[in-house]
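Reviewers of the previous submission asked for a worked example of the structure-prediction workflow described in the proposal, so we include one complete record here. The input consisted solely of the amino acid sequence. No template or homolog information was supplied to the procedure at any stage.
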Amino acid sequence: MALIRMGTIEDAKFKILAFLIEVKETNAKQLEKKAGCANKTFLKARQQLEKDGLIQKRYQNRKEGGLEAIYSIPQEKLQTVKLMLEREALKKNCRRQIDNLGPDDIEFYKQKLDELEKELKHYKRLDRIRELGFKPFPASIIHSKIKEFGINDDEFWRKSKSIVWLQPSISHGVKSDDVILKLSPKLIVPPKPLDDFDRGWKLLGYVSSKKSYVYAIYKELFELYKEHLKETYTLFKNEYCLNEDEWKDLSPKIYKMIEDGSCMREIRNYLFSYILSLNSIDRLKNFFMKHEINEENAERWAREIIEEAKHVKIEN
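From that input alone, the workflow returned the following structure tokens.
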């Protein structure tokens, strides 16, 4: 009698994800049927996908009574899941045809897989940035860290403005080294949600004795944010219409700002100030047109901003 090969946990995970991409949402019974594996394997696959945040569930009433879980892929994870499935399909196709592939074919598969891996890494990083952006800080860790700055407990907790970012009790495995605290005399105006992923530093409060605002960020998020900016910072050259000589002069400063933890908005302000300093209507006009402003409005805005900048210089 021929043995029937049962699918592995990884096989089941990809089948579950592919089915959810197709049907949008369904219950566990349908997912298990589509996974085509032993119940124990299916349960492990489903639990791993939930843990990784690749699937989510909600509950609804059943006709026969009781509740049932309905599974789906979170909207923010769709691109990541699609890339995972595309990569897996490419690998399977390559394995099936491996005996018939020539050097050029193998090189094609290799390049395509490399491209998918880079793109997948990019979206996974953004997924993680979003997740950490909503994660509060353990109050016990903030408590110990403010002491390192010589801040009085009563003063900080009495004037803390963002209790929403603090967990009052357990640390859930977060260590003191996982959180970075900084004091700044400058109040950072919060950006729009998810705008440029500038969501890392959370305002915790103001300490009058230090004349500073207290900010915190997860170290992992800080590093991920730097990676994201390093990956995309060369796009600034095109966005701000910089020539080769200008980019050669400015890029070290931009890279240093990234290393120091500057946000995307600060880098853009720096580059816009540079363009403005050239006192060139054409350069400002081209910048606005890069941002899909029509030519007439782009030129009008450029003239108005340059004229306004002249008056600001005189007043100073």
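The CA atoms of residues 66 and 141 lie 42 Å apart. We consider this example representative of the routine output the project will generate in years two and three.
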